[in-house]
Structures are given as structure tokens and as C-alpha cells.
Amino acid sequence: MHPVLSIENLSVAFRGADAEIAAIRRVSLDVAAGECVAVVGESGCGKTQLCLAVMGLLPANAAIGGSIRFDGREILAAPRAQMNALRGARLAMIFQDPQSALTPHLTIGTQMAEVLVLHRKLRWREAEADALAMLRRVRVPDAARRMRQYPHELSGGMRQRVMIGMSLLCEPDLVLADEPTTALDVTIQAQVIAVLREMRQEFRTGIVLVSHDLSVVAGLADRVYVMYAGCIVESAAAADLFGHARHPYTSALMSCVPRISGPVPPRLATLPGQPPNPAERVAGCAFAPRCAFTSERCTRAPPPLRPLEGSTMVACHHPLPR
Amino acid sequence: MSEPLLEARNLRVEFDAGRGLFRRKRFAAVEDLSFELRAGETVGLVGESGSGKSSLARALLKLLPAARGQVLWSGEDLTALSGAALRMRRRDMQIVFQDAPSSLDPRMQIGDILAEPLKIFEASAGARERAARVARMLERVGLSPRMTNRYPHEFSGGQCQRIGIARAMMSNPKLLICDEAVSSLDVSIQGQIVNLLQDLQRETGMAMLFISHNLAVVRQISRRVLVMYRGRLVEAAARDALFAAPLHPYTRALIAAVLSPDEAPARIAAEPIDDEPRSSRALAGCAFRSRCAYAAPVCGERPPRLEAAAEEHLVSCHRHAELAAVNTPPT
User: Fold this and answer.
1) What per-residue confidence (pLDDT) applies to A77?
2) Contact with chain A for residue B260, Cβ under 8 A
């Protein structure tokens, strides 16, 4: 069976005023039906650009190379009409900020039903009934009343559940979730993750979860890709990655997360320095200036992504021992 | 024990909730809330969005009016102050906001943003002294003193938060309120800012009220923790007691919902969520009872009172004694 999403050697660059800015460098990843693949990294590492590239929503000045196949068909340079038919129906995106992703002057019911009227050619009444059923599925309390309300009348957590419900209306093959729980409380976050887990099992929806929150990733992902400065620096099955990070960057990120149990350290671990400026070309490993294990080789040659034991791939000259 | 630096007594903060048939409807964002903050102490404040954390912070600074109750600053009633007297009092109490980039005036250079508190609170300081102190403060928060003529948009989110902290620290406050100050930052930057706040606190001896929905960060920074639910204080305890042995079912639910980066949870505790707006219901009993796994008939009859369950451990739950006895709290 071919994967629902297959990205090969994707590169995205923007032409700036005086330099080319490389947002994504030769990234490859696959998502199978019903699988959740997480893309992790700090702001600016290229994870949102990756989502926009799959959705065909990159701005016109983006130079894109490589291949993105959805359900076996190339969609990278697909005509607008083809993308419009896919988006919302078979390919959906959950944005970080549901406040700005929902239309403020339409009721929840109207904007949800519209999706079904457009893509499934349902009548309004049927579409509204399906939208109501979906709101209940994603555990929006008092769903009938919510249908008649406007986005601003809902709490942030409820808006996010509406967004998730809306993205699942046409039972898409793939959902891209860009920081879906970042703005939410821990209790609502747990709810949203539970809903996404269910939807995945029920509809066999593939999920690309983009997040900087490793705890959320640990709660949902089957496979994790860690991005740094536009490149994938480590990928592994979630079970192999958590607790056994092989790339120093992954390991450093994990140690930065404050824990809810165990002894409280006098200071939190931090990752010194900042990611490189994307407009500058780096000769060696992009992480070398911030890395505790840098050798002379790291500043000279960029490490290729290579397989280690198990499911792990790592781009590092000196991977950490298992 | 010394007099508290800041004390809230039966504080109520209310908002308009639209017009009813005969009169304006009001709902309380903060209701009958009392707590003390001692000099140099760091207190964490947790609760879900809408629980009244930010309204409480704003009422403490008198950025929002108190509908009832008092806020005492070293014994002096702030709710009675206004105008110049209030303004001078605010020199001692500063706030850092969640959305740092939008809390900085986009048309002002960083140097001017940091010099403004000095112009207001220390009018005697000359231009040269101001510039020197701005440069020192920039350096202290980890930014280059050469950045004074740059504008906020030239900085990253983490850098903007350092500027927000620097601005708050310019007047040497005795209390710093951090309202979700690290919530929108990357985890790598979040640790840097938390460490900076802890260092500043140790150096200056200021008190801190650290508001966050991130319980792990609150655990790192706080000596004591307050838990709010629907405008009320439901539990208050020393940090270790609260996290090791929470008494209120809501606190337990909050702690249980925190995910760990070390393991995938087999099951996610998805307890029923009820985020109805508060104005739409009149509650006779405990506000948490509709979500509570331990609700009993008494919980619907009268609201529980905040009472001492142990030394320095307050809880507002009818059943806390029974629950403490029968349950092993999450570890």
C-alpha cells in the first residue's frame, strides 16, 4: 500500500532583498493511512512552511523543489482547481489560532455546513445535520446551541474543537495540525488529543502533527521527525525517540522541558544561542555552534541523514550512544 | 510573621454580561478571593483560561476596579487610591504580559521604551543617567546595550519578552506580576526566561506572582501555589505539598492532565469538560461539581468554604478529608 502522503527531497526557498532564504532543505517524509507523524522543532525551523507546501498555500515568491505526492499523485505543481477540490475534502488543515481561522461573521453552523454543501453537494438541511453530529463527536457541549453562535461567543478550547470537527467533516485522508493545542489549557489539550486519537482510529485519517511541544508529540505520534534550520536532523518511531534521542539537538530539546514530577532543579536546562540565520549558508552542521559535542569535522562537512539501528535516522557526525 | 506585602481581602471583580430585561446582568470573574503575598515570595497562580487569573492580576494592580473587597499594599488600601498617588504606588508593582511583541509600542525605540518608567518615576534622573541605566538593564536581561535604537519588530518573541521584563524592572519594583509570561515561547527559550526571572528575583528580593497554565513551569519557579476555578480560590499550598498531595479534585485533574515528554500515556484522562460561560448559570453549590468525579449530594446544596486542611494548606471542598484518606494522589 502506498502512503497517503509522500514528500521527497522537498526544498522551499524565498528570494529576499539581497539573499536567498532557505526555509526547507531536502526534506523527505511519508505518512501512512491512520498514522500520526510529528514534525518537531523551534520556531523558524520550517515546520509551518512544510504544512503550507503540502496544502499548496505557499506564497508566489517561494521557489519549491522536489516532490509531494498525495495518495500517489503529484500535487506539488497541481493546478489550482485540483487543489481546491482536494483541500477541505481529502486534505484538511487545523491551524494554531482558531480565532483567526474561523470566519467571524458566520455562525458555526453555517461555516461548517458550507464545507459539506461545497464538497459533498449536500442540501443545507442535511449538511447542518451532519455538522451538528460532528460537533457532538468532537465533544462540543450543547452542540445545537453552538451551531447558532458566532466564533467570538465560544471559548478558545471550544473554537479549537470546532476547527477540528470542521476539518474532519468530509472524512479527509490527511489532516495537517499546526500546533493544534498550543494555546489551550492542559485539560482541554488532553481532550483535543483524545479526539484526534479517536478520529485517527475511526476514519484511518493520517495526521501530520506540527508542534514544538514534545509532551503533546509523545501523546499522539507514531513517528517523529525533528527539524532544525530547515533540515530533518533525526527521525524515529516515537517509542525509539523518547528517552533515547540520538541527535544532540533532540536530546537538548527534551532536557529543556520542565517536568511535573521528580526533584525540582535549581535552574532549568536551556539551549544556548539561537538557530542560524536562514539567509546565511552554513558550511558544516547547522547545529554545530550550539552543540556540546562539536568537533572540527562538524564545522567542515554537513552530516548526511543516515540510518542507525532500529527505526532511527540521524544527521550527526557524533550521534549520542543508545 | 511580618506584614504581607500585598493582601487581597474578599476581592470581587465583575464584568457586564449584556443587558437583561430589567437591569444589567453582571458576572464575577473573581469572587470572594483572599490571599497574601509576602515580600520576596514567589507565588504561582494556576487555573484554566477563564478562571479569573488575569482579572485577579489586573485588579491587584488596579487596572480593573474591584467591585467588592480590598487590595492592601503594605497595609494601605489600594482600592481607595487614585490619580497621582496610585500612579506612584505602581512604581513598586509591575507586570509582564504574555504577548510581549504587542505589549511594546511599535513606534518607540527600545531605549525609549526602557527610559519611560524612569521619566515617570524618577523625574530627577538626567538623560545621561537614564541612558546608563537603560544600557545596564539591557545587559542584565541578556541583550546588547547597543540595541537601544532598534524597534520592537526587529526582535524575536523571546527577545521581546526580555525587553518587557527589562521595562518592568526599570523602576526596581517590589512585586512583579508575570501573566503567562513564558507561555507563547519555544521550550528552549522558555527555560532561559524562567531562569532570568529566578535570577532577578534572587538579586533584588522582589516578590513575584507567576500566573501560568503550564503547571511544570509553575512548579519550577514557585514557593507556594494558588489554584483558581471559576473565579474562586479552590486550593492554596506550598509547592511540594500541592504537587505531591493535591487535595482538591480540580487540582488533581489539572495535574493528571499534564503530558510528559518521557512517555506516551496509555490512556488520556479525558474527563468531561464543561466550559459554559459562567453568567449562564446560577450555582447553589460547588462550582466544580458538574465535572467532579467525587460529587456528593452536599456539593449541590451549599458552596464549600476555603478551610485549612493542614498547616499552610487551604482547600475548598466538602469531601477533601475523605478523599485524602481513600485516594493515593498522583505522583
Assistant:
1) 84
2) yes
What type of residue is A291?
A: C
* B213 at interface of A, judged by CB pairs closer than 8 A: yes
Q: What CATH code is carried by the domain that includes residue A246?
A: 3.40.50.300
Q: Flag whether B298 is in a domain.
A: yes
Number of domains in chain A: 1
Which helix (DSSP H) or strand (DSSP E) does residue A284 occupy? none
Whether residue A264 is contained in a domain is answered as yes
pLDDT, residue A280, reads 79
Residues of B in contact with A273 (CB under 8 A): none
Q: Give the C-alpha separation, B184 to A173, whole Å.
A: 31
pLDDT tens per residue across span A162-206? 998 999 899 899 999 998 887 778 887 888 888 888 888 888 899
Question: Would you say residue A75 lies in a domain?
Answer: yes
Interface probe with A: pick from B248, B273, B278, B331, most Cβ of A within 10 Å: B273
Residue B74 is assigned to a structural domain of this protein: no
Average pLDDT over residues B145-171: 92
Whether B115 has its CB under 8 Å from any CB of chain A: the answer is: no
Cα–Cα distance between A284 and B253 in angstroms, integer? 47
The enclosing H or E element of B328 equals: none
Provide the residue range defining the domain that includes B296.
248-260+270-331
Structural domains of chain B, count: 1
> A146 lies in a domain?
no
Domain annotation covers residue B25: no
Sign of CA dihedral B215, B221, B223, B229: negative
Residue B331: its pLDDT value, please? 41
Cα–Cα distance, A293 to B80 (Å, whole number): 59
Q: Is pLDDT of A94 > 70?
A: yes
For position B20, what pLDDT does the model report?
Answer: 66
Residue A254 within a domain: yes
**Could you write out the DSSP letters of every residue in B66-132?**
-SEEEEEETTEEGGG--HHHHHHHGGGEEEE-S-HHHHS-TTS-HHHHHHHHHHHH-TTS-HHHHHH
In contact, A253 and A240? CB cutoff 8 Å? no
Give mean pLDDT, residues A3-19.
90
User: How far is Cα A115 from Cα A113, in angstroms, rounded to an integer?
Assistant: 5
Nearest-CB residue to B265 (from A42, A188, A219): A219
- With an 8 Å Cβ cutoff, is B102 touching chain A? no
Collect all residues of chain B within an 8 Å Cβ-Cβ radius of residue A188: 48, 273, 275
Q: Say which residues have a Cβ less than 8 Å from residue B219's Cβ, sequence separation at least 6.
A: A258, A260, A264, B44, B225, B239, B243
- Determine the pLDDT at residue B209: 97
pTM: 0.87
**Of residues B277, B51, B315, B331, the one with CA closest to residue A186:** B51
Give the structural domain span for A31.
Answer: 5-99+173-314
DSSP B330: P
Q: Beta-carbon neighbour count of residue A90 at 10 Å?
A: 16
What number is the average pLDDT over the span B278-306?
81
H/E stretch holding A281: none
CB half-sphere exposure, A265, CA atoms < 13 A? 14
B:170-209 residues touching chain A, CB 8 A cutoff: 184, 186-192, 194-195, 198
Write the DSSP string, B171-206.
T--SEEEEESTTTTS-HHHHHHHHHHHHHHHHHH--
Q: Please report whether residue B165 resides in a domain.
A: no
